[in-house]
């Protein structure tokens, strides 16, 4: 089911023309390392500074409410970066067992101090957890960074470690204009498309959880 769980986030102003002008193969290669330049370097490399500002607090509350989470339940945030959502989910519902995993060694080493014991280095294509471990699995703006084959592996892993509930958000577009804007903006995404392209991937991977699109 498509659901907008990120509706409480402030809208991000994207200067698509400036990104297109600045974007080079060298910048794309550096951003794709998901290291210091991607998170905390100049804007043309990625976030332009990835610091905690509380913007995920209302999102965490919406997630807890929508999925009717209870203390003792287990939640996995795939692509947790510095652990901001892990922090806010933990605070939104004391007793919720939240764990974050990310492929970026830089992000994990520079995580929020409050979640040092809740985040770890890992790869969604081969999650280090037994089947049906988590009551809810989240992956927000991460999976499109894989090519088609690895994306299907990742989705199958999400299905494997989850018990029933999952939410993913990925890059997509619904018109030729949105497609053009996206392609001018994108740095790290490898798989993206129209909704029907994603539905095909979901079917092939056996993913039946919730989802939404990030549209430039």
What does this protein structure show overall?
This protein has a single domain (16-214), classed as Vaccinia Virus protein VP39 (Rossmann fold). The protein is 36% helix and 17% strand. It contains nine helices and six strands, in the order ααααβαβαββαβααβ. It has helices at 16-22, 25-31, 36-40, 57-66, 84-92, 105-109, 148-161, 176-185, 195-205, and strands spanning 74-78, 97-102, 119-121, 134-140, 162-171, 210-214. The protein has a six-stranded parallel sheet. Helix 5 (84-92) links the parallel strand 1 and strand 2 (97-102). Helix 1 (16-22) crosses helix 8 (176-185), helix 4 packs across helix 5 and helix 7 crosses helix 9. The longest helix has 14 residues, at 148-161. The two termini are 21 Å apart.
The coarse silhouette is globular
User: Major sheet, described briefly?
Assistant: 6 strands, parallel
Rounded to an integer in angstroms, the radius of gyration calculated over CA atoms is: 17 Å
Domain count: the total is 1
Helical residues, percent: 25-40%
Strand runs, count: 6
Spatial sequence of strands, sheet with the most strands: 3-2-1-4-5-6
The CATH architecture can be given as 3-Layer(aba) Sandwich
CATH fold descriptor: Rossmann fold
CATH superfamily: Vaccinia Virus protein VP39
Quick check: average pLDDT?
96
- Report the span from N to C terminus: 21 Å
């Amino acid at each position: 089911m498509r659901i907008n769980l990120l509706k409480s986030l402030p809208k991000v102003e994207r200067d698509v023309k400036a990104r297109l002008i600045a974007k080079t193969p060298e910048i794309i290669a550096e951003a794709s390392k998901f290291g210091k330049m991607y998170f905390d370097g100049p804007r043309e490399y990625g976030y332009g500074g990835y610091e905690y500002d509380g913007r995920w607090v209302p999102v965490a509350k919406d997630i807890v409410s929508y999925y009717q989470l209870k203390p003792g339940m287990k939640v996995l945030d795939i692509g947790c970066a510095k652990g901001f959502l892990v922090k806010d989910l933990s605070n939104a519902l004391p007793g919720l067992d939240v764990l974050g995993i990310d492929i970026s060694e830089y992000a994990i080493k520079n995580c929020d101090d409050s979640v040092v014991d809740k985040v770890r280095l890992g790869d969604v294509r081969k999650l280090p957890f037994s089947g049906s471990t988590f009551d809810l699995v989240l992956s927000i703006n991460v999976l499109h960074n894989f090519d088609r084959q690895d994306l299907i592996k990742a989705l199958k892993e999400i299905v494997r470690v989850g018990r029933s509930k999952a939410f993913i958000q990925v890059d997509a577009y619904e018109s030729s204009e949105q497609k053009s804007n996206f392609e001018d903006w994108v740095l790290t995404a490898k798989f993206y498309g129209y909704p029907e392209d994603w539905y095909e991937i979901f079917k092939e991977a056996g993913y039946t959880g919730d989802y939404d699109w990030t549209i430039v």
